[in-house]
Design a protein that fits this description.
Shape: elongated
Strand content: 5-15%
Mean pLDDT: 88
Radius of gyration: 32 Å
Structural class: alpha+beta
Distance between the termini: 127 Å
Number of helices: 22
Oligomer: single chain
Strand order of the largest sheet: 4-3-5-7-6
Amino acid sequence: MARMASNSVNEGENAICDAEPSMAGATSRRDTILLALCITLFVALGFVLRWQLMARMQFSIDSDEAIVGLMANHILEGKGLPVFYYGQHYMGSLEAILVAGAFWIFGSSSLVLRSVPLAVSLSLIPVMYLLGREAAGRRAGLVAALLFAIPPAALVEWSTKPRGGFIEIVWISAICLCCALKWTRTGVPSLRHSCIMGSLLGVGWWVNNQIIFTIATVGVIWALTIGLRSGRFAQIVRNGFIHGLVGGVAFLIGGMPFWIHNFLSDFASFKLFGPSAEPWANAIGFFRNGLPIIVGAKRFWSTNEVWTGSVIVAAVLYGVVALILSVVRRQLRGDAKWGDLKEGVTEHPYAVLLPVLFIVATAAIFSLSSFGWLSSAPRYLLPLYPVIFLLISVALSRVRPVYSVTGAVMFVAFHLASSAAGGWPVPGEPFVYKEERVARDHRALVDWLTEHKIAWVRTNYWIGYRLAFETGERVRFLVLGKPRETRMPEYPRAADEVPADEFVYVLTPQLANEVAESMINLGMTFESTKVGSYIILHDVHHPLSGLERIDSARITATASVNPDSVGQAIDGSLETRWGSAQPQSPGMTVQVAALDGAIISGVRISLGAWWTDHPRELLVECEEVGGVKRTVLSPSNFRALDYHLGWGDLELAIQGSPCSAVVLRQLGVHPLFDWSIAEIQLFQKRSVGAEMGELYQ
């Protein structure tokens, strides 16, 4: 009987054991489905939050974003793959390549352009789940994913900005941090892991140098793991050397576009890097403005709180996180062996160390770099988001579930308040002149230019590249005013072949008044038309129209400083220049005249690529045949021409008494920049024979 009872018990136990895998499988499937539903819900919430911002902005873009769209169109047109964002030697073209793929499928538009960083941002939500789960379990992963789905205002805005790779570098950084945690959990990473990590970091280095924060953090984590888990000193040295070599080679291969470009261009990218002149001021700005903006207590380009006390609320929330982590750290001390955690603790040994290292490295590098002054617009601090959310999620995973939910809700509420306080503000368009901004809708402008068959305009940077993208480059432009950066040098090269009277000026109202005044001072005539929020100056008659240029071989020049190179200002080439060879100071002069004594009726002064060396104050005089000098352009009128100068051409008609020479007097001061002139051209009235020949033709 006892044996029969024993057999019955054993059979029952076996039956139960046989059933456990089935029950475990069902539970696992149920958990997987619930997890997938949670992540899908978070992605949906993230999409709604970001989409509503795009919609309120009418899906408009700025010129920096339009350049990414132009790059993508050029890729599809077969113009080759650019290495970097146009006009600079950093920020790789990965985002433009992704946009080109989207344009190929859906067509070129501002909406599709913005949708690419949006998609990358949303794909970061499951990545954040993996990062949190790897650090401290499933609950931490869900919290991290939720916080990234509903982040502070700055990340909401930059999640949809195609600015050359900012959100993509956050994605690469988060993947690298997740892999670093995964591969160091059980021991020294394999060489394959070091190779993959080096490649990812190399790609990140090409995409955006902000990956340096991640490089520093992963480097320390790798070194700690190898140092603490390799055993003997000789083994530590051997592992460190081999992993460093494999990772370094993979890093160079991953960032190959960056290195090939720099090898062929005298390492131009590294000329952009430099130490800050005021590292302590940058450090203060980092903690006073940069971090508060990142966490949502302040807004971009603002030193004011989002609402009264928002910085204090942020300090309290993150103070509680620090307190929880401090308590957890103390609980984990004692007789726990390396890599072993106490009962019920699933935390990775580096779960707190990794994000803290990242924040410290970011603060140090940002403060010491020449970009550290941008603490009020901390786009270079966007990679902080994954580690900040990771710290929060690790802390909330160590308390009771009800407290986890409460904490997550409080952070989500704080993030929403950073966007919604004051009525869900819409980021303003870039400033063009004084308080005047770019128009949010360009349809009226595009229709007018199309109707009048206008292909070339002079306008501000913030209007021009956006206009070029929105018209599929049917309209191109020359930069007028500040900023003077020309991202696409083919535009000014092509414009050299375009008659001056085919250009129109697209200006904001106050700027139009300034430019109109300067044009009148230059003897130009024009018509004015209001289109949308812009003023268009068209049917422009230039002062040199009807004049013929005096051949450069017939011109002579002298200079009061660096006279030996003044011939480069009259050699007929914009690729050479005369420079003062010393910082600008009052009294510098350049004088030009015709060798054969021709009467001068006009002058064009070109700065070429040296617009930074423009004269800070200029007096232009005409020397009459008898030696008397008279003013053609006064310093006050020259100051009014600042925006009219555009790419750097100043054209003056000379009327009145016959002029035998033109004298340029530099009266301004600059502690650093020379005074440079790429080319001076003189003009005279057309001969009767030339006019008759044109009439005959």
